């Protein structure tokens, strides 16, 4: 669908004083971009699909800046877990049992759930893309859902064994997954011809805090040079203070978003602003997961959003 016209919807708008109103309006969309909003745009030409929105409220969508989409199927089983329990029981526990079709269904249901909740763009911190096969399933499900997404491939490896717990040596696995990321970036369009530009690739780089600095420098430089969005956890309490690592080691900041960041001092906040670093803070998540008390930020016109 390249052009459609939503007629007579109750369109949520805000004036300069941020006072809302719901005037009856038409919205014309051309090539996925809002081209016009007016009280009466007619019925369009023969190539325009007309949608009767007279019984509906039409509003901007929510933007989710940090979501592990595939975890939708498992969310209620870990709702009361602090951060370390979540890592042990989900990332290094239940996730181990997901086969490829599980990954596909989990991703599809998670993305569809987001859409039904009014979320159309999402930054997907994708721990399930542990191999090319898994990444392809994830991207396919994301495309089929219809959501707009940045699929941030996050280097990660399932344990080799749960009983006893045997973790995989990431020295061999990590470069392999970075190579996977680079190969996905080379796909145009990502995932095939069904991708009309809604789904792009990104990097979830939590391992930055635990890898050799020269390796981190090379990967971040690659991301910056290729304009790849990067999302990292920024939780000092659990040895994942990504912003501090960047500052201390003069690592190149790419197009970066910090998740779980809380209570920055003025110097830290100024650095976020000067480098246009995004912040995602989720009070409903931070408190029960014991990442310490969060504080929402608004700076340079960009606001923190909920998980």
Automatic annotation (TrEMBL):
Region (Disordered): 249-278
Pfam families: Amidohydro_1
Domain of life: Eukaryota
Record domain Amidohydrolase-related: where: 57-233
UniProt xrefs under SUPFAM superfamilies: Composite domain of metallo-dependent hydrolases, Metallo-dependent hydrolases
Basic and acidic residues composition-biased segments: 260-276
Assigned keywords, A-Z: Hydrolase
Recorded coiled-coil stretches: none
Protein name, as recorded: Amidohydrolase-related domain-containing protein
Organism: Paecilomyces lecythidis
